[in-house]
Amino acid sequence: MEYLQGDLGRLLLSFGLGMAVGLEREISDKPAGLRTNVLICLGSTLFTLISLKMGGTGSDPTRIAAQLVSGIGFLGAGAIMREGEHVTGLTTAATIFVVAAIGMAVGYGYGRLGAVCAVATLVVQVVLARMDMLVDHMRRRYTFRIVSSPDEKAIHAIEKILRTNGIHVMHSKVMKRNSLYHSEWATTGPTEKQARVAHELLQSSHVQEVTY
User: Fold this and answer.
1) What strands lie across the sheet with 140-148, from one edge to the other?
2) Rounded to whole angstroms, how far apart are CA atoms 175 and 181?
3) Are 124 and 158 part of one and the same domain?
4) First to last CA, the chain
5) Full domain range(s) for residue 172
6) In this structure, are 81 and 113 located in the same domain?
């Protein structure tokens, strides 16, 4: 009975930790929300408990749990999506991986370790997410697509506007089509400065059209 209570206690702890992480994901409106994270954590714990029970003398009790890492990798990969130049779902996939690790830790009897990891995960998701937003605001990426007059003065004028506003150009390309220059400029910089650049480009006599 005591051993059964121990197993039930681990499952209940796994449920609570999975719910704590999942609730934050649900509030943040992420694809892997409350139910997903709870189920992943519970499943990881149960697989670990089963591997311990099935491991007899001379056998390796970690064999079933080891396969869990590969399985969670496939589940996490399904959350990663590419949208144009942006890749989304990496944090969701990483959270799935960590929640599975928390469940395994609880299943092996390292409840405190799993709880500390769950708290650290919440800190990453809540506190560091705000820092990430701040950094993203400071280093926002834009691609300017500019139609200008077909001469080098136009290109120099565009470069000057970007440079004087402190915008970093990662790469650019210029094509000539229909007697006009069509150029693309991949840039990084604060959102306000990027908007100022767009305004100054539209005011330039060399530029006919700007999209970003």
Assistant:
1) 168-177, 180-189, 140-148, 207-211
2) 6
3) no
4) 66
5) 139-211
6) yes
> What's the rounded Cα separation, in Å, for the pair 20 and 122?
8
Domain count, the chain: 2
pLDDT in tens, the chain (212 residues): 444 458 899 999 999 999 999 999 998 888 888 999 999 999 999 988 888 887 665 667 677 777 888 888 888 877 777 766 667 788 889 999 999 999 999 998 999 999 999 999 999 998 887 777 776 666 778 899 999 998 889 999 999 999 999 898 988 999 988 889 999 999 988 888 888 999 999 999 999 999 88
Contacts of 83 (CB under 8 A, 6+ apart): none
Using the 3D structure, point to which of 108, 136, 164 is the last residue of a domain.
136
Are 89 and 121 members of one domain? Answer: yes
Counting Cβ atoms within 10 Å, is residue 39 exposed (0-12), middle (13-18) or buried (19+)? Answer: middle
